[in-house]
């Protein structure tokens, strides 16, 4: 007998909750604020069936374009036959979490702004571009003593 290709086919482990994290959704999930333009990760919660995204979108990161009372609209990129299509999906807030993908970028922007303000006070010009690590400085290798290396003497094994 052939197997079905249903909407939730092959999601036994995909939608399973982590170890010791089973049960109801904590209230803190509902008190999070989501704004248009925020980056979120679409992570389907298997215990909530309403507003669950398709299994393709599980683990994808997108940007919020619409906020309603109990759901958010997310733009997620989908690769179809070699081209990338921005898909607009509506997902309940139980199935999204704020993305940490931009944390390093936002921290770097704040640090750069602080550097610019400090440099302006001192009257200096500063470059905030990230520079790759350059080659190491020149140095002379001076060994204390020369070691002569000879091959080991051949010995029969039998």
Automatic annotation (TrEMBL):
<dbReference type="InterPro" id="IPR008991">
    <property type="entry name" value="Translation_prot_SH3-like_sf"/>
</dbReference>
<dbReference type="GO" id="GO:0006412">
    <property type="term" value="P:translation"/>
</dbReference>
<dbReference type="GO" id="GO:1990904">
    <property type="term" value="C:ribonucleoprotein complex"/>
</dbReference>
<protein>
    <recommendedName>
        <fullName>60S ribosomal protein L21</fullName>
    </recommendedName>
</protein>
<dbReference type="InterPro" id="IPR018259">
    <property type="entry name" value="Ribosomal_eL21_CS"/>
</dbReference>
<comment type="similarity">
    <text>Belongs to the eukaryotic ribosomal protein eL21 family.</text>
</comment>
<dbReference type="GO" id="GO:0005840">
    <property type="term" value="C:ribosome"/>
</dbReference>
<dbReference type="GO" id="GO:0003735">
    <property type="term" value="F:structural constituent of ribosome"/>
</dbReference>
<keyword id="KW-0689">Ribosomal protein</keyword>
<dbReference type="InterPro" id="IPR001147">
    <property type="entry name" value="Ribosomal_eL21"/>
</dbReference>
<dbReference type="Pfam" id="PF01157">
    <property type="entry name" value="Ribosomal_L21e"/>
</dbReference>
<dbReference type="InterPro" id="IPR036948">
    <property type="entry name" value="Ribosomal_eL21_sf"/>
</dbReference>
<keyword id="KW-0687">Ribonucleoprotein</keyword>
